[in-house]
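Give me the fold.
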Amino acid sequence: MPGADNTVLITGARAPVALHLARLLDGAGRRVILADTPARPIAAASKACARYYRLPPPRFEPQAYAEAIEALLPEEQIGLVIPTCEEVFHLALTWRGRAMPARLFAPGIELLAEVHNKHAFMRLAERIGLAVPETTLLQSQADLEAVRNRSHELVFKPVWSRFASHVLLRPSPGELDAINASPAAPWVAQRFVEGEEISAYAVARDGRLKALALYRSLYRAGKGAGIYFERMEDAAARKLVEHIVAGTVWTGQISFDLMREADGRVLPLECNPRAVSGLHFFRDPARFAEAVLGDGPEVPPDVTAPQTVRLAMWIYGLRAALRSGDLGRFRKAMREGRELLDWPGDPAPMKAQWPALVEIARTALRQRISLQAASTRDIEWNGPDE
């Protein structure tokens, strides 16, 4: 994005990827403003943050959120806004129909919604020539009954969801009684694909790939979000990502859950049009900024060590290790993994984890939901009819 103004707004400051992106851009000489709805997100504690703005929750107060963003841009003379989490949808809606004084580093809401929708994304991938696993839209009890007798071959998930929440993996026919599919709350039934999971994080501009990291998650928070990441390379996965960003003429960050089958074929499972943990494999500020915001060539990942958040490993990884009885693997991972919150000369975000966690825990207790659900409750976007 040649000529982008020097001041950049990064939203989603609660997320480690927002902190990482702020550090990269600050290290490349940009002035970084951060914004989000929590009182004390981790990224706000970083020396890379010139100023932090607390915003209304976009899921529950969309008009107030849009007005706050619109007022913030001229106040800080912001030229570019980079979302990192699901607030990207709320920002795209803010940009639609308004003459905003800054550019949004994301596509329009129509394309964002299409790739976020777990059924529509499969149809899009088919249209641009990709092989996809059979994926059926479920909007009624009749739709559910049509696939009940082969439920053990399928994965069931809500069309609008994140962190593998509510996923049923090859359930018994009786377990499908928990699903209440409707046009307002649709699900998909997707063929279970045997193979190795691959996560992809990419940045593209006008359909050209500018950064790509492929990785696997060795430990997860429950069934979904990874908390310990190991880099990998896969030519077929790279080709698939290139095909999608070119076919959609994508500008912004985009991420994918992929599966490599035994014969080497890579299939897309779903898409997240936002930042994910693959960003942590980039630590060269100048090269990253020049590739993503300037005219530089695609920047390759420059980190080889596994990346992790140790606090999350103690909360989730240890529990998984105790269940599996593999404490040796856990200890090895803790020795070899690099704390992704560490950054030379910027120690404050490590301590900021604790008040940030307390704030999320209070929401979880108040709403009687999980920590994971509480971490995104106020920014989730569950389709245009929510």
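The mean pLDDT is 94.
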